[in-house]
Amino acid sequence: MRILNKIIYLTAAMLRRWGYHFNEDADPRVRAMKKEIQALGGRIEFKIEQYPDGSWAAESVNIDGVITGGTNAKEITSSIRDAVFTYFGVPAHLCNDAMLRADNEPVTLRQHVYV
């Protein structure tokens, strides 16, 4: 199922670049997601932990149940977006990354170092 969702997501992204619109804003799941994010002050915050083997885990600090992880740091952003869309039940063809982050918005990573 994960591979099928990835194919649908990538196909929809390609169609968007070619000018096709899926009218994401008309979907009730997308509207509910945006409404809840706005109620949180317009952002979902994550605590990201990286482990010595290069793997990582990210957990939302302001929404219970949004957690993801991976094997390398390059996939953090896409995995977090996927986790947010999955949490809100947004289908793969409506997952438009532009809905989750505005252009030129800085990305802040919080890192804790323990000795």
Written as H for each helix and E for each strand, in order along the chain, the element string is: HHEEEH
Net shape: globular
Oligomer: single chain
Counted by DSSP, the helix tally is 3
InterPro entries: TTHA1013/TTHA0281-like (IPR035069)
Structural commentary:
InterPro entries: TTHA1013/TTHA0281-like. It is a single chain. With 115 residues, the chain is an alpha+beta fold. It has three helices and three strands. The protein has one domain (2-99). The protein has helices spanning 2-17, 28-39, 76-87; strands at residues 46-50, 56-60, 67-70. A three-stranded antiparallel sheet has the order 1-2-3, with helices on one face. A hairpin with a 5-residue loop joins strand 1 (46-50) and strand 2 (56-60). The protein is globular and about 45 Å long. The model has no long low-confidence stretch (mean pLDDT 85).
List the helices and strands and how they pair.
Layout: H1 2-17, H2 28-39, E1 46-50, E2 56-60, E3 67-70, H3 76-87
Antiparallel strand pairs: 1-2, 2-3
Short description:
This protein is α+β, with helices and mostly antiparallel strands and 115 residues long.
Keywords:
3 helices; alpha+beta; TTHA1013/TTHA0281-like; globular
